[in-house]
Design a protein that fits this description.
alpha+beta; 2 domains; four-stranded antiparallel sheet; three-stranded antiparallel sheet; 7 strands
Length: 155
C-alpha cells in the first residue's frame, strides 16, 4: 500500500504573497534611492521563487510505501528504507513542531550534521513539513507504517 501526503497549499500561497509584497517594497526602495532595497528585493524574490516552486505539482510530498519513506522538497527527493530508521518523534525547532527521526546505523548518527541536529532537536534529521497533519499524528502514522513493515519482513 502506498500513501502520499502533500503540504498544505495555503501556507505556501501565504509565503508567496508575503515575499511578492516585500519584493515590491524592495523595488520601491531602490526607486527611492534607498540602498537597503538592493538587499530586500533579491532576498524576498528568492523566497518568492521558493514559494512558487513549492506550489508546482509533484514538487513536495511525503510518500510511504512497503519499502520505506520518500521525501520530496522542491523536486529534490531522498528515500530511506524502514530498516534505516530507528524511530520517529516530534522535534521542536524553536516553537515549531516537525517530525524528526534517528538512523539505525550508528555511523550515520555520528555525522556532524546529524550530531548538531540531534543536539538541537533530539533527532538526527527531520522532514521539512507535516503535510497537513499535526506532527504527533504524522509521527504515529510513520511509526505504525514502519512497525507493520518490520513485522511483515520477519514473518
Amino acid at each position: 500500500m502506498e500513501l502520499i501526503l502533500k503540504p498544505r497549499k495555503v501556507v505556501w500561497i501565504a509565503i508567496l504573497v508575503f515575499c511578492a509584497a516585500l519584493t515590491a517594497i524592495g523595488l520601491l526602495m531602490i526607486l527611492d534611492r534607498d540602498a537597503r532595497g538592493w538587499f530586500v528585493a533579491p532576498v524576498f524574490f528568492i523566497g518568492f521563487l521558493v514559494g512558487f516552486g513549492a506550489l508546482l505539482p509533484g514538487s513536495s510530498y511525503l510518500k510511504m510505501d512497503r519499502d520505506g519513506v520518500t521525501c520530496s522538497s522542491l523536486f529534490r527527493k531522498s528515500s530511506l528504507r524502514w530498516e534505516e530508521i530507528s524511530n520517529f518523534g516530534v522535534a521542536y525547532v524553536g516553537s515549531h513542531k516537525l517530525v524528526g527521526f534517528n538512523y539505525s546505523d550508528p555511523q550515520k548518527m555520528q555525522r556532524k550534521a546529524a550530531l548538531l541536529s540531534a543536539t538541537l532537536s533530539g533527532y538526527a534529521a527531520a522532514f521539512p513539513d507535516t503535510y497537513g497533519l499535526k506532527a504527533e499524528d504524522l509521527v504515529s502514522l510513520l511509526n505504525a507504517s514502519r512497525l507493520a513493515r518490520m513485522i511483515a519482513n520477519k514473518g
